[in-house]
Write a structure and sequence with these properties.
- With about 425 residues, the protein is mainly α.
- It is about 80% helix and about 0% strand.
- The radius of gyration is 21 Å and the shape is globular.
Length: about 425
Amino acid sequence: MDPVSNSISLSAYWRLVRQNRNFRNLWFAQIVSEIGDWFYTLAIYNLLLQLTGRASSVALALVVQVLPQTFMGPIAGVVNDRLSRKRVMITTDLARAVVVLAMLLVRSRSTVWLIYPLLLIESSMWAFFEPARTATIPNVTTDEDLLVANTLSSTTWSVNLVVGASIGGVALALLGRNAMFILNTLSFLASAYFLGRMHFREPHAEAAAKIKASYLTAYTSVIDGIRYVRRDSRRLALVLIKTGLLQIGVSWVLFTVMGQRVFPLHRMGLDPQSSGVLGMSMLMGARGIGAIVGPLFSARWAGSSESRLRLGVLLGFVAIGVGYGALGASTSLWQACFCAILAHSGGSTVWVFSTTLLQQNTEDKFRGRVFSAELGLAMLTLALGSYLTGFVIDRGVEPRTVSMATGFLMLVPICGWAFAMRLWKVQPAAIGAQFE
């Protein structure tokens, strides 16, 4: 078995943030922008459900948000492998600030259509930003700190979800949607400021030829990236792991509907609409708590052992299946929240471990393309899950049934990854030969 590191601890996270200035600024940028995003997301989904009364409108919004990440992936990958990833992140942050501010134009049912093109533009920018951020982490940390950095990033995302969903639900009920849009605009400007304070080498940009428009249309660089992944079936398996995270797309629609229709939180004399918002925010917050707990404990167990990272992915898929299956049988909001915690502790473990494994097994000059492809495939699954969830709920299928079905469907990635783990028992030469 691989040696297990005992360095994954709270002191390791603190040391990384305190001593590594570049990672600290990247981390600060993540904090401010993601909290703003959660405020903004609650506002968008609540607005759509309120004005249209259809779960499919929320599902369509999520599809519009994630599909650009699939179709823009090849171009985003080439750009991030040939230009400064720091500049890509700053540029997309500034563009998203303008787009989110334009959401203030949506004031009635007659203007609700504006949400979809604005979401499309904003999501296209995120398709460039997120692979750049993921590919940058190995450039600003050491190999020993890579799992620590990824775990902290994932845990921060989860804390931001808890804070954004819980406080955001209250803020949305009390302050209104326009305040949420303004706060998110400011968060993107703050993120760009912190990113601008980073100073680090980007070997991929120094070695790459100057980017030309032909690179974006000829797809030569894209084909090179595909060949790079196919040369090793283990790397291909790692790229495909996140496509098994079906519950991400399901949760956005399912938790929104469950909060409104199944588990509204009646407190403080609020009207039914506000009670539904609080129920939704509690479920989203529980999802965030689970995403915090998962990597914090599993990363300490896995340490630097690749074999444990691979096993952790399998156990994470199992936790998702059990959690969503039990969620469908929950009789109270608190039971539902516990099930969401279990399921998403598994989901966040899968995300962190698969990211770390792929970073460890990908050369810097290919990281932009590899992570763009991985993200694009994952977002395609997310879009499919969210659309189908909205589709079946609008046709009378109970949310509880959808939850149970999601748990059952997790058998597909469980079995798929269990089979893929056998690849690490095959000699490397034989693995490469399978795809030559």
